[in-house]
Specification:
This protein is mainly β and 317 residues long. The chain is built from one helix and 28 strands.
Amino acid sequence: MKYLLAALVLAMSSPTIAAQLLVLNKADATLAFVDPQSGVTRATVPTGVGPHEIELSTDGKFAFVSNYGTNTPGNSLSIVDVSARRESKRVDLGELQRPHGLTFTNGQLYFTAEQSQRVGRLDPATARVEWTFPTEQQGTHMVLAARDGTRLFTSNISSNTVGIFERSSNDWTQTLVSVGAGPEGLDQSPDGRELWSAHSRDGAISIIDLASKKVTQTVDAKTRRSNRLKFTNDGALVLVSDLGAGELVIIDARKRTQLKRLALGRAPTGILIPPGGEVAYVALSGENKIAVIDLKSLTVAKSIETGGSPDGMAWAR
């Protein structure tokens, strides 16, 4: 009995692993580890120049950062040990310039090399790029793995297309779907049936049926410059950051109608919805802060101060 009591006391006294909000500060070239409750930055880790997007490994042990660069194109990925809070390796991508979008699936990291018009795959075990695919599209910016891991989706900003990648016997095949002007933010519906693509240059959203690989509906979101698009975890809402208007546009996913526009401040960019799904974090690159959105009341609950020009975010435990 005394051993059982001792075990219970030990379990109760052991600290729980707190959630961490990981924020990329583009202007500072850092990855910040932020306490989401207090808003206090606990640590910062140097990255390459112009870090834009961040993705975690499935086990949450490593964060991958795309170093996009500024005036000079970047060509590296930072691999950050989350528990140690340090950059464990910086991967030189050579001729693969302007790495941007990231997605982790089936134990591999996929990334876009925008200026090189390619999608690449990094083996985390060796930190080597083992595969690339020429999209032959201008501005291949974002990449997203399907929820079941069988497909990849890319947004090609200057070609006005969305790429759908599927595995063939020896490689991947690419199907291009024409959408509106300047597709950038994209997300797959939680039921896996649709891909929504926000156009940065005409204020609309293309809804792609993934079975037919065709646009079935175009929704006028009336944005000035859409940046990111995210479904809420229950699939009820779609959030779009309007970088040009300084607003978050909230859309009823089923009715395809606008519910609300929240004025947030200058240059809203990245959107993160943690697993609990009660709040959304929206990076305000022009304000050096994160807006925390209550997804029940659809109001701004609070803000978190950050470094210079926050953008990509991730949630770690």
